[in-house]
C-alpha cells in the first residue's frame, strides 16, 4: 500500500518554516490504518514483547494497535503533569524548541522487552528522551518504530541502541 498518499503536508505548523506531516487522513481510513499497523509489526510479530510505549499524543494511536497485535501492554509517555502516579522525567530538544517527557515509575519492569512507537521521527530528541526513560526503568528496547521518518533531520542517529523502523521516509 502507498501510505504516503494518506499523509497531508501542513505548511508553517506549528510555526513558520515547519512542514508538518499530518497523519489524520491515514487514521481516518480504516484500511490504511490497519495496513500500517500490520506493516509495523511484521518484523517483530514472532518476538516476545511485553510493552509497547507510545509517545504523546499521536504516538498513542498506533502504539495501542501494535500492543494489541503483539499481545503486549501499552505504556504512555506524556508531557509533564499529565500522569497521575510517580514519574521519571527526561528533557529533550526538538526541531522547534525544548520540552520534557514523563513515564510512570512502575510502567516497565526490569528486563521487560519493549517496543517504542511515535508517529514521526524528526530530529530524534523526543525519541532519545523516551529511550532514556525506558532504560531508566530497566526495559530492554527491541525496536523503535515510526510511521514517518524525516531523513534529512538525521534523528535515527540519536537512537542507535536498537533497530529503527519507519514505514515512510521523507
Précis, in short:
The protein is an alpha/beta fold. It is built from four helices and nine strands. It has one domain (46-169): Rossmann fold, CATH 3.40.50.2020.
List keywords for this structure.
single chain; 170 residues; alpha/beta; Rossmann fold; two-stranded antiparallel sheet; 4 helices; 24% helix
Describe it for me?
By secondary structure, this protein is of the alpha/beta class. It has one domain (46-169): Rossmann fold (3-Layer(aba) Sandwich), CATH 3.40.50.2020. It contains four helices and nine strands. It has helices at 24-27, 30-41, 58-70, 125-136, and strands at residues 8-11, 19-22, 51-55, 73-77, 87-94, 97-104, 113-121, 140-149, 164-169. Strands 4-3-7-8-9 form a five-stranded parallel beta sheet, with helices on both faces. A two-stranded antiparallel sheet has the order 1-2. Strands 5-6 form a two-stranded antiparallel sheet. The longest helix has 13 residues, at 58-70. The protein is globular, with a radius of gyration of 15 Å. The two termini are 16 Å apart.
- What is the overall shape? globular
Q: Count of DSSP helices?
A: 4
By CATH reckoning, the class would read Alpha Beta
CATH architecture classification name? 3-Layer(aba) Sandwich
| Mean of pLDDT | 95
Radius of gyration (Å) = 15 Å
Poorly predicted runs of 5 or more residues:
none
Number of strands: 9
Measure the end-to-end span: 16 Å
Strand content: 25-35%
**How much helix, percentage-wise, in residues?**
10-25%
Question: What do we call the CATH topology?
Answer: Rossmann fold
* Widest β-sheet, arrangement of strands: 4-3-7-8-9
Sheet with the most strands?
Answer: 5 strands, parallel
Number of structurally distinct domains: 1
Amino acid at each position: 500500500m502507498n501510505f504516503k498518499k494518506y499523509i497531508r503536508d501542513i505548511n508553517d505548523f506549528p510555526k513558520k518554516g515547519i512542514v508538518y506531516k499530518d497523519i489524520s487522513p491515514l487514521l481516518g481510513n480504516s484500511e490504511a490504518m490497519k495496513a500500517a499497523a500490520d506493516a509495523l509489526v511484521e518484523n517483530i510479530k514472532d518476538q516476545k514483547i511485553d510493552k509497547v510505549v507510545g509517545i504523546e499524543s499521536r504516538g498513542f494511536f498506533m502504539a495501542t494497535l501494535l500492543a494489541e497485535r503483539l499481545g503486549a501492554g501499552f505504556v504512555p509517555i506524556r508531557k509533564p503533569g499529565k500522569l497521575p502516579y510517580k514519574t521519571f522525567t527526561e528533557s529533550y530538544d526538538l526541531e522547534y524548541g525544548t520540552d520534557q517527557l514523563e513515564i510512570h515509575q512502575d510502567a516497565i519492569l526490569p528486563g521487560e522487552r519493549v517496543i517504542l512507537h511515535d508517529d514521526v521521527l524528526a530530529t530524534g530528541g523526543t525519541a532519545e528522551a523516551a529511550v532514556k526513560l525506558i532504560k531508566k526503568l530497566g526495559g530492554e528496547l527491541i525496536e523503535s518504530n515510526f510511521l514517518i521518518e524525516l531523513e534529512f533531520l538525521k534523528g535515527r542517529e540519536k537512537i542507535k541502541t536498537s533497530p529503527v523502523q519507519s514505514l515512510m521516509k521523507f
